[in-house]
Amino acid sequence: MKQKSELEHEIAQLIVDTLNLEEISASEIEPDQPLFIDGVGLDSIDALELSLALSKRYGCKLNSDDEENANVFSTISTLSDYIKNNAVSKQGNFSYPESI
Fold first, then answer.
1. What is the pTM assigned to this prediction?
2. What CATH superfamily is the domain 6-93?
3. What is the per-residue pLDDT across 29-87, written as a single tens digit (0 to 9) for each?
């Protein structure tokens, strides 16, 4: 079992809060656990809500027609990698330290 980084924990909490998940807590979502279908059980509507929340929180743009979305949204770990590479602050681009 992989140790969850600070960013991964933050994303897990964002998922639970944004989607009002009552049957699972952020600490129960593993970094490499699938988010859809047999994993956490998210669906396409959840993906839309989550992409809006991620965009607001981290400033990264997620286009609905991007072919990479299935990979980006597959796990908390892949979302974390995407955010590290695409997050934008009001001051411009920034990246998370590798230790996160």
1. 0.82
2. ACP-like (1.10.1200.10)
3. 999 999 998 899 999 899 999 999 999 999 988 777 788 888 999 999 999 999 999 88
Ranges of each domain in the chain: 6-93
- Give 59-65's long-range contacts (Cβ < 8 A, gap of 24+): 59/87, 59/88, 59/89, 60/86, 60/87, 60/88, 61/86
Integer CA distances (angstroms), 64 to 14, 41, 79, in order = 19, 20, 15
From CA 31, how far away is CA 8, in angstroms rounded?
Answer: 7
